[in-house]
Amino acid sequence: VDTQIFYPVMPPPGPVCIVLVARMLWDKGVGEFVEAANRLTAAGVNARFVLVGDPDPANPASVPEATLSSWHGQHGVEWWGRREDIPAVLQAAHIACLPSSYGEGLPKSLLEAAACGLPIVTSDAPGCREVVRDGVNGLLVPVRDTAALATALRKLIDDAALRRRMGEQSRLRAETEFGLETVIAQTLAVYREVCV
Question: How far apart are CA 36 and CA 14, in angstroms?
Fold first, then answer.
C-alpha cells in the first residue's frame, strides 16, 4: 500500500462511520454487515454503516443493485456505489469492516484502511487475519457470525480511545509491514539472494 496516498487524518465528527469497501458480493460479508447494522440500530446505536463498491452482475455471488438500493437509508445503512476517491472515503470513516468469507489473498481494502489509521473489524479467515492482530489493530470475528460482528463493531463504536489506539497500530503495521517501500526492499532482497 502507498502510505503517501493513504494516510491518517483527524477523525471526522460523529456519528461514528463504519465503511466496507469491496465489490458488493455476498461472499464479502455485505449481508452480515447490513444485518449487524440492523441489530445495532435496533439497540439504539447511532452510527453510519457505509457500503462502497458496485455489484458484479457476472458473479453469481453478486448482491443485486435493487437490494443495495433498498438497504440505502434503512437502519443507518448507506450505499455509495463505486468511488474513485478511496483515500478520502477512508479518511471520512472511523472504522473499516470486511466480514469476508471469500478466501481473500491479502485484501487491498484492509491494507488501505490500515494505512489510513483505521481500526479494523474483519473475519478470522485467511488473508483478513494477516492484516489484523486481534485486539491490537482491530478485532477478528468468526466467519458469517453476525452477532459477533455486531458485538465487535459496538465495542469500537462505543470507545473512541480504543479506536484511536487500534488505529495507531494499524498505521504502524501498514508502514512497517505493508508499505510500498518496505515490500519493494524485501522483494529486491529476495532477488539478490536468489541471483547470487
Answer: 19
User: What is the pTM for the complete model shown?
Assistant: 0.91
Q: C-alpha distances in angstroms, 4 versus 1, 78, 87, 109, 181? A: 9, 28, 10, 16, 10
Sequence-ordered list of residues with C-beta below 8 angstroms from that of 148, at least 6 positions apart, any chain: 141, 142
- Name the burial class of residue 142, with classes exposed (0-12), middle (13-18) and buried (19+) by CB atoms within 10 angstroms of its CB: middle
Coil, strand or helix: which one is 57?
coil
Cell of 63: 448482491
pLDDT, tens digit only, all 196 positions of the chain: 999 999 999 999 989 999 999 999 999 999 999 999 999 999 999 999 999 999 999 999 999 999 999 999 999 999 999 999 999 999 999 999 999 998 778 899 999 999 999 999 999 999 999 999 999 999 999 999 999 999 999 999 999 999 999 999 999 999 999 865 664 455 545 656 777 6
Contact by Cβ (8 Å): 182, 175: yes
Spatial distance between the Cα atoms of 159 and 131, rounded to a whole number of angstroms: 21
Q: Nearest to residue 153, comparing CAs of 40, 75, 10?
A: 40
What is the crossing angle of helices 30-42 and 146-157, to 10°? 60
In sequence order, the 6+-apart residues with CB closer than 8 A to the CB of 192 are none
